[in-house]
Amino acid sequence: MQPYLSRVLDPGAAPAGWSRHDGEEFLYVLAGRVQVLTEFYAPAELGPGEGCYLDSRMGHRVERLGDEEPRLLWIATRPQAGDAP
Length: 85
Fold this sequence. Notes:
Blueprint: E1 2-7, E2 24-31, E3 33-38, E4 44-46, E5 51-55, E6 60-65, E7 71-76
Antiparallel strand pairs: 1-7, 2-5, 2-7, 3-4, 3-6
């Protein structure tokens, strides 16, 4: 497992499209509000103290909601030895 602290950039500042890779992820909102978009499920709006889990092979992305810059804690699985990155 690898933890990451991240910020969600202003709309249009991040690359468009889906993120997709091997593994699983859990994200937890520390500050601000975000919308989690996935390939197969309805969008989810999350605020401080809320989180979600997803299979990283499914297309996914996070978008900022509101003026406050969101801060997130991501916890992702790492590829196993010998797996493609």
